[in-house]
Amino acid sequence: QVQLAESGGGLVQAGGSLRLSCAASGFSLISGNIMGWFRQAPGRQREFVAAIAWNSATNYADTVQGRFAISRDNAKNTIYLQISSLKPEDTAVYYCAANTRTYYGPAESQYEYWGQGTQVTVSS
Fold it and tell me: How far is Cα 59 from Cα 52, in angstroms, rounded to an integer?
């Protein structure tokens, strides 16, 4: 059974930084597997943030390019999302997702596994 557990969210002032973690059990970043991050702001649809492949290839949404960095630690079966220069519009629930389809694009339907989410709130 695959489980994804996010952590690291919280209340941060604008301009600050945060690192989110997603620990996977029953799932590894082996050949063909992808893990990534989505977020859902209040009153908005969930949107793709970033994804990382087993071979370290990455993909980012245009809106977060340059401020967000996704990385992985295979030994810990964990991925991270480093967020810098936080803005109030980054306030959202951040979800970890994973798939075995060698897909690291933005389509939610391609991700088979999801975490429960971690809240990030940025104050101005």
Answer: 7
Question: In sequence order, which residues have a C-beta less than 8 Å from that of residue 76 and are 6 or more positions away?
Answer: 23
Which residue in 36, 35, 25, 13 sits closest to 86, CA to CA? 13
Give the angle 116-77-87 at the CA atoms, nearest 5°.
Answer: 50
What is the number of other CB atoms lying within 10 angstroms of the CB of residue 106? 16
| Pick from 2, 41, 42: nearest CA to 22 | 2
**Contact partners, residue 31, CB within 8 Å, separation at least 6:** 54, 55
- Give the pLDDT confidence of 25-70 residue by residue, as tens digits: 999 888 889 999 999 999 999 999 999 998 889 999 999 989 999 9
| 3-state secondary structure (DSSP) of residue 86 | coil
